[in-house]
Amino acid sequence: MLFLWTLALFAAINTVTSVGATSTPKTYVGYKDDWILLPCVSLEPAASESLNIFWRDKDDKVVLDVINGKTDKIDPFFTNRVVSFPDEYKKGNFSIVIRQLKFLDTGPYDCEVPQMSFQIRLFLRVVDRIPTPCANATKKANATGKPVLAVTEGANGVGRYTQSVTMLSICLAIFFLFYNSSI
Ligand SMILES: *[C@@H]1O[C@H](CO)[C@@H](O)[C@H](O)[C@H]1NC(C)=O
Ligand SMILES: *[C@@H]1O[C@H](CO)[C@@H](O)[C@H](O)[C@H]1NC(C)=O
Ligand SMILES: *[C@@H]1O[C@H](CO)[C@@H](O)[C@H](O)[C@H]1NC(C)=O
């Protein structure tokens, strides 16, 4: 029973990942309570220092308003959780970091710079860090002196998630081994 449940869980995770990889807009996957960089980069540098930048979420909440190059407004839902990089604006880099990710942050995000007629949409998905069966499998592997698994931190959320899905597959194999040997 437990084994079937685990299989179903991993099948679900892998399905979700492959859908995310092929759909437009581009999907970024972050972990709950972790942070993620949401890129918004124009090919051309900004013509002016006094840019207006508008970031919006799925509910049209103000993720970030930059007016004349200065942070103007952030919705209370995102207060103290959104960081932008003013030094990067002139290079056409309007990316933000969202910290302390919540499941509710999942959804589409729009980044718009009207003066440059520049607008992009991306999709953020916030997921749990590691399912319990895998954490348990990791502990068991440790106890028997087998190599310890760890989720490595990549350059971005997607990289990390891809790696962790690979890790999850390895975890599943280990979980399976121990499940069988414990019968
Ligand atoms: C944009 O700025 C962020 C923060 O400094 C940085 O991490 C990212 O690599 C930059 N992106 C580009 C394309 O320069
Ligand atoms: C994982 O271990 C915890 C205790 O460390 C236990 O409560 C939980 O039931 C275990 N889960 C599975 C799927 O074995
Ligand atoms: C496994 O053991 C190492 C030390 O040998 C420890 O640092 C690590 O936290 C352990 N991992 C788990 C999941 O117990």
UniProtKB/TrEMBL annotation:
Keyword Flavoprotein annotated: no
Location(s), subcellular: Cell membrane
Tell me the domain of life. Eukaryota
Listed A to Z, the keywords are: Cell membrane, Disulfide bond, Glycoprotein, Immunoglobulin domain, Membrane, Receptor, Signal, Transmembrane, Transmembrane helix
An example GO biological process term is:
cellular response to lipopolysaccharide
Recorded GO CC terms: external side of plasma membrane
In the bilayer, the protein is annotated as: Single-pass type I membrane protein
Q: Which residues form the signal peptide?
A: 1-21
* Name of this protein: Uncharacterized protein
Q: Source organism lineage?
A: Eukaryota, Metazoa, Chordata, Craniata, Vertebrata
